[in-house]
Design a protein that fits this description.
This protein has helices at residues 2-20, 25-33, 41-46, 72-85, 106-112, 144-153, 156-165, 192-195, 204-212, 225-230, 242-245, 275-280, 283-316, 326-346, 348-371; strands at 58-63, 90-94, 117-120, 169-176, 183-185, 199-201, 216-218, 236-237, 256-259, 268-274, 320-323. The strands form two sheets. It has a six-stranded mixed beta sheet, covered by helices on one side. The protein has 381 residues and is of the alpha/beta class.
Length: 381
């Protein structure tokens, strides 16, 4: 009888399994577990696309405003990647700063076709549109991770394309070197009151923000910063990240480096092409250019942050790093947001970009908070 009962039970289970089929709760649960989440939109676009290798060769001229700064290496890296990936079908010759046009004339020269392309920090073109600054660095704005997510996945690229498109050019993000040093200073300043009366070199939106807070600001060109610090024309100056500031020697003539760089949580660069020239490129070369820009975006951040390791060691032999207290950071933030709100109210282009960035920051905040307590500090044995 036991054998008969066992056989009946097995048969019952088998019949139940067959008759329930894929619509059973178990099957639905299994299907739910492997259901696809998210998608790469390019997959659908490229899945049936046929690509052909072009044979035409192109030789373009490009420049930048970097002179002796190591940021010039990013431009060479980008051009070399294109040359390698295209098998020499697209050669971009990078001319030294000023060889064809002065540094701050590369925008107009590329727009008119005197140059085929340039590399820059978009904030330099503030006079063309205030919105360019939002793609370069915003005080208390996006860090390098934020810029990548917002630009590639949250509509930032389309807005950037539209802005440069007004001037007959096609842009791509092309290098982010992370946070800048807050200030090289001959006066120790970690509290808000200690900044009042200081003479500071800065530019862009931070110049306007500090001025509103009672700080005396001078927008000196980068080449004049060293002498201004050495001769006491300014008490403090912000310029760039540790690895870029080392050759300038600011740490050798100042006593303090004030952190964090609230004015520039990250420094974003771009590469920009004359649209008529861009339109002449066959599709395969356009894809190579865009891919090279993304590769440079990834590499430049790792390259710069790795150099900062040694740069900070060198700086600490000459200067003391000090940190703003929390109350000062909060006050700087309040003044920043008041300024940005006022600017956005007067400028639709600025409002469009900052609203988009702020929406991303707001929606990303939950995940950032959940992961925020785990920081990869070295072990303390």
């Amino acid at each position: 009888m036991k054998k008969i009962a066992l056989a009946v039970l097995i048969a019952f289970v088998a019949v139940a399994f067959v008759t329930m089929g894929p619509t059973s709760a178990f099957a639905q649960q299994q299907q739910k577990k492997v259901e696809k989440f998210g998608e790469d939109k390019r997959i659908a676009e490229w899945s049936k696309k046929k690509f052909e290798t072009s044979t035409q060769k192109f030789n373009w001229r490009m420049s930048d405003p970097w002179a002796g700064l190591n940021y010039h290496d990013m431009v060479i890296h980008f051009a070399d990647t294109i040359r390698a990936c295209s098998g020499g079908r697209l050669e971009i010759k990078v001319f030294p700063t000023g060889a064809i046009v002065p540094a701050m004339e590369i925008f107009e020269a590329t727009s008119k076709g005197t140059l085929d392309a340039f590399h820059s920090w978009p904030g330099y073109w503030k006079g063309r549109s205030e919105a360019f600054v939002a793609y370069a660095s915003v005080p208390f704005g996006l860090d390098n991770e934020g810029y990548n997510i917002w630009y590639y996945e949250r509509g930032g690229k389309a807005m950037f394309d539209e802005l440069y498109g007004r001037f007959g050019m096609v842009p791509f993000f092309c290098g982010n070197v992370g946070m800048e040093i807050g200030m090289h200073s001959n006066k120790r300043a970690t509290k808000l009151d200690e900044f009042k009366g200081m003479k500071v070199r800065t530019v862009g939106w931070y110049m306007d923000i500090l001025t509103k807070m009672g700080v005396s600001v001078t927008p000196l060109p980068g080449a004049e910063v060293y002498l201004a610090l050495e001769r006491g024309v300014v008490d403090a100056a912000e310029f760039s990240s540790p690895s870029a500031n080392i050759p300038a020697g600011f740490h050798e003539i100042t006593k303090f480096a004030i952190m964090p760089g609230v004015h520039q949580p990250s420094c974003q660069f771009d590469v920009v092409f004359n649209k008529k020239k861009w339109d002449e490129l066959p599709e395969d070369l356009k894809i190579i250019v865009e891919t090279a820009a993304k590769e440079t975006q990834l590499w430049a951040n790792a390259w710069a942050e790795n150099m900062n390791i040694e740069a900070v060691k060198i700086m600490k032999t000459k200067t003391e790093f000090v940190k703003l207290d929390d109350a000062t950071i909060i006050n700087f933030a309040k003044a920043t947001f008041e300024f940005l709100d006022d600017l956005a109210a007067k400028n639709p282009d600025v409002k469009k970009v900052l609203d988009s960035q702020e929406k991303f920051k707001d929606e990303f905040a939950d995940w950032r908070d959940l992961r925020g307590r785990l920081v990869p500090w070295p072990r303390a044995d």
